[in-house]
Specification:
This protein is α/β, with parallel strands linked by helices. It has 6 helices and 9 strands; from the N terminus they run ββαβαβαββααβαββ. The model has no long low-confidence stretch (mean pLDDT 94).
Length: 214
Amino acid sequence: MTTELSRCSAAFGRLRIDYDHRVLRPRPWTTAQSVWAAELLHDAPPGPVLELCAGAGHIGLLALALAGSRRDLVLVDRDAVACAFARVNASRELPAGVVDVRRSRLETALAPGERFAVILADPPWVPTAAVGRFPRDPVTAIDGGPDGLTVAWVCLDVIAGHLLPGGSAVVQLGTAGQVDRVAERLAGDPAATLRVAARRSYGARGILALVRHR
């Protein structure tokens, strides 16, 4: 896959975000995830911010902009084009050296000792059988496996291993039923270290889950 960029731009909150047809277009409603993360950053422990399945990097970048934060930001995505756009957007919105864009599988993106004060996760959550309903979206950016939660579980494993004590994670999912399944599985697993502490629903557009240590 070539990473030569043919740019479109979209407003995302106060930011301008570059992307193209190979990357999921920034959804206006997902500024809500940035807003919640910014709220959490005001009381979060010292430490950097992490965004998993970051795409063009817009949600993490807007969170730091809204919080007025100078924290470091790590953006992780497996797609080369998404990472190229994330670097472009980061270079415009934050000073050089503050943002670390990593093209990687989620399971191998972080060193064992890395810990984060706030983690954002934006996994694909459309069930595989339903991806045809969204022909304009890149399949790899929306296909969440049979129940839409395959990548979300990987994100939660990463969160469990890399969230600082007292930190928070905000996970974007598609339906209340998906959040219910996550909450029930975490609550029913004595080995789990996480819990769903709160949620904010945006109707048919999606739902956000606040995840913290037990």
